[in-house]
Amino acid sequence: MRPIVNLLFALFFVLIGPDRAVAAEPDPYAPDRQALIKLFREIEASINAQDVNRMLAQMHPQATVTWLNGEVSRGHAEIKAYYDRMLRGERRTLDRYLTTAKLGASAHFFGNGEVAVADGTMEDEFFPVARGPFRLSSNWTSTSAKIDGKWQVVSMHLSSNVFTNSLIAEAKAAIWYAAAGAGFAGLLLGGLLGRLWRRR
Q: Cβ(143)–Cβ(153) under 8 Å?
C-alpha cells in the first residue's frame, strides 16, 4: 500500500507543482500583509499629494527616515522639518516630488509577527526649482511594527545607484558636449591665428 501512496503523492506534486502545494497552506499573516500594503499605498499617495502630515500619520512618532540625499531624520518633527525645507518656502529645493512604488518580495515577519521588514523599488520624478525635471530609479526598505494593534513604519531607508543614474548620465553628456565645444573653439581659434600669421 505504501508504494501506491507514495506514487499518488508524487503525482500530486507533478500535477499541481510544489509552489501551488505550498500556497495551498493558509498564510497566518495574510491580514497583516493587507494592512501593510494599505499603509505603503497611503504613504505613496501622501508623497504624490505633497501632504507630509498624511505621511506622518503612517509613521511611529520615533520613526527614522534615511533620505535619498543621505540625510537622516529622527522623529516626526525632524521628518516634517526636512520635508518643509525641501519642498516649501522660498529656499526650497523642489517644487514637487512624485513616486510610483512597487513591493519587492513578500514582507518577512519577526518577533511573533509584531515586526515586518519589506523592500521594493520606486520610480521617482523630481521637479527642482533651479533646473528642469528629472527621473530617478531608487530602492526602499522599511521596517514596520504592530503597536496597539496598528501597523506603523518605524524605519524607512531610501537609496539609489550612485554610480549609474540619470543625473550622472546627464553630467557625462554635459562633459562631452563641453569637450566637443572646447575642441571646436580651439580649432576655430587655431585656424584664425594661422590665417593671421600667413597674412603677415
A: yes
According to DSSP, the residues that pair with 125 across neighbouring strands are 98, 135
DSSP E strands in the chain: the ranges are 59-66, 72-74, 94-103, 108-110, 115-128, 134-147, 150-160
**pTM of the complete model:** 0.71
CATH class of 27-160: alpha beta
DSSP class of residue 75 equals H
Q: Note the pLDDT tens digit of each residue in 175-194.
A: 433 444 444 445 555 555 55
Burial of residue 24 (CB within 10 Å: 0-12, 13-18, 19+) is exposed
Model pLDDT, residue 164: 56
Q: Which residues does 103 contact at the CB level (< 8 Å), separation at least 6?
A: 37, 40, 118, 120
- Per-position b or e across 112-147, b if 16+ CB within 10 A of its CB: eeeebebeeebebebeeeeeeeeebebebebbbbbe
Question: Counting beta carbons within 10 angstroms of the beta carbon of residue 83, is it exposed (0 to 12), middle (13 to 18) or buried (19 or more)?
Answer: buried
Cα atoms found within 13 Å of the Cα of residue 132, Cβ hemisphere only:
3
What is the spatial distance between Cα 55 and Cα 33, in angstroms, rounded to a whole number? 19
Domain limits, the chain? 27-160, 164-200
